From TrEMBL:
The modification 4-aspartylphosphate is found at residue 53. One of its GO terms (biological process) is phosphorelay signal transduction system. This is Two-component system chemotaxis response regulator CheY. It comes from Sphaerotilus hippei. SMART domains: REC (SM00448). The keyword S-adenosyl-L-methionine does not apply. Signal peptide: none annotated. The keyword Phosphoprotein applies. Keywords: Phosphoprotein. Residues 4-119 form the Response regulatory domain.
Length: 120
């Protein structure tokens, strides 16, 4: 059975790039356009892993990560895939429960490797 990955980014074209890379690697993908949308979709979905951007409208990725870690999905690994590369942001992410941090632009193989390590 394939694992389900939730991809959260406010850019639909970027979500498509990520979705295609993950589907090619055999994963099922659920998309959300921001943290608020993702929080609503988590109710009916149990993703094995979440790939999330930091900068999004309505609810940013770090707020979303704290939301996830405070609820029933607290053991779901989160990978941040973002343009943010400052150590302070990465430290904030780690404190929020983020397991990996990948900076855009990225190689699809780099993402698939990270996903397969955190979601064997």
């Amino acid at each position: 059975m394939s694992k389900t990955i939730m991809v959260i980014d406010d850019s639909s074209s970027f979500r498509t790039v990520v979705k295609l890379a993950l589907q090619k690697a055999g994963y099922t993908v659920v998309e959300a356009m921001d943290g608020q949308d993702a929080a609503e979709k988590l109710g009916g979905n149990r993703p094995h892993l979440i790939v999330c951007d930091v900068n999004m409208p309505r609810m940013d990725g770090l707020t979303f990560a704290r939301h996830v870690k405070a609820g029933p999905h607290k053991f779901t690994p989160i990978i941040m895939l973002t343009t943010e590369s400052q150590e302070a942001k990465k430290a904030e992410g780690k404190a929020a429960g983020v397991r990996a941090w990948i900076t855009k632009p990225f190689q699809p193989s780099q993402l698939v490797d990270a996903v397969s390590r955190l979601c064997p």
